[in-house]
Design goal:
Structural class of chain B: mainly alpha
Distance between the termini of chain A: 54 Å
Largest sheet of chain B: none
Mean pLDDT of chain A: 89
Number of helices of chain B: 4
Number of strands of chain B: 0
Order of helices and strands of chain B: HHHH
Oligomer: heterodimer
Order of helices and strands of chain A: HHHHHHHHH
Helix content of chain A: 55-70%
Strand content of chain A: under 5%
Largest interface: A-B, 60 and 43 residues
Chain lengths: ~200, ~80
Amino acid sequence: MREIGETGQDDWLKRLHVDASGRDQAIEELRCYLVRGLTKSLSHRYGGKLQIEDVVQVALLKILSSLDSFQHRSRFTTWALSIATRIGISELRRHYYRDVSLDTSSSGSKIQLDVEDASANRAEQYEERKELVTKLEKLINETLTDKQRIAIQGTLAGLSVEVIAERLKSNRNAVYKLVHDARLRLRQELESEGITIEDIEMNVA
Amino acid sequence: MFSYSQVIGLLTSIATAVPDTLDCDGCFEMISEFAEAEIRGDELSVGLKSVQLHLSQCPCCAYEYEALLEAIRDAETK
């Protein structure tokens, strides 16, 4: 079997083409390369409960069906690894967050933020944090749309936008935009209430 | 009820929020090119700077990118 380095990056497309002779060997070489790349890098993420061989099989199918979309902006193997990594992380997230609930009802219950466990050295600092969190809670509940509030609730619970999208039966791009627009809106609203970025940074330090 | 430690994460993302021209799929399309440019230490083109900005705004994509860099290193190790 050839080593990966012996296959020129442009040769991959030819060798993996559906009519190419030796295609099976090329697929096997790529499979070994992906397994070598993913085995350690995914083992310590989200509990690492994943069959790498299964992920690589799914990734190979995706890669082989997407050869036409490879734009030669990077080496072929880096492009293939990016696809396999994304598939692996998605699977890990799905498994890791399977028991975490998210209230996706459109009316969505109001979000409540707790300031009681805020560590503060001085009573004055505690009062500042309390004021900031109280304002933030009010802005989340009064200025965001229902969908934005649900998405923010998901991020507060530690869910990634990908998992939130799955729960909302939406897509990752749309949920990212929801969350990002909500953050920008909250920043703008906090500033209009006289809270500067420096104030926020002081309270999260 | 969300704890203050959970609120800190949200406040940090609010404090660092800036307009982002890419979505996650747009970032993914250029991520392998971005990874190689960063590994080589190349100066980033305008397009790749938009990837860099998206990664600073999207923890989901940033986490996948971190895993990709590790995978590239491991895959190249004979």
